[in-house]
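Listing S7. Sequence submitted for prediction.
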Amino acid sequence: MKRMMILALLAVFLLSILGPTALALEVCYPTSIVQSDDGSEIRKSYDLGPEDDPGGIPRSDFEQNGWNYSLTDLLKQETPEYQEREHTETVTVTSKKKDMESVLALLPQEKEFVTEDGLSGTLALPLSTVRIEEAGYGKSSKTVTTTRRYPNLAGQDTEYIPKTIDEGGRTMKLKDISWQTDNTDSVDGYAMGDRFTAVATYTGTATSSYVTGYNVTADYTGKVSRIALDRVRYVAIFERTTFVPEEPELPVEPEFPDEPVVELPRKTGSFHIQWGYILIPLGVIAAAGGGIGIALFLKRRSESGEEDSQ
């Protein structure tokens, strides 16, 4: 139980040290460095996103060309960015008629659009992009009528009149009959018809399909644009402060008298060590070692206490 508590305390101790250290190592790098003509000032620009932390911008002194430079100001500038691109927006409308005049009445020649990512612009309609398709079909029915004549009948008898007929692929039923006298004969001084024509009327139902409407699709094209504040520029201004003289190089003493003296080449520029990046890991290692030492000490003390009690 004691061993588990010691390991837990050691883990918390190490996390408390490593957490801030890992964050401190997230350094921002400049996108441009500009030095004044006389070398008295150096400006380092950092382009960051709105969500980026400017705390990673280095602010410590540095040495360059024998001079020491110190931070005097850190400026923040919002840099607007103009964005523009070609865009095509497809629209669909419904029309009851198919002719182009009726269709164009539903589609303006130009139209304002805003894209999902916030770009806007006026787009034009090329007529070549207009497409018309049938939206659907419906059915309608109506009653149709036709007549048939049956001449030279001996009497007005419906027995010889067909009760149904076929007309244009439809079956039609007999609805009415009218009679016409074709010839008369004298019987006992009376004129009597002896030949007749039957005029039969037949009715049926005619069904037809029709287009219920049209779907019209058209593409509007053009440029959309916006001005976005997606970048933040930080300018770190460093001014020259003090001159750091170079230390003279000492000649290398020969190991043997007969060997010639070899001189090392002199430094052509200055090199500055960022001690922060060396000391921080060393501090982490030292802290981790101290934590492990404390854990071992407590462990041994616990074991010795257990032996004494025995």
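Caption to Listing S7: primary sequence and predicted structure tokens for the chain studied. DSSP finds three helices and ten strands in the chain. The helical segments are 2-24, 100-104, 275-309.
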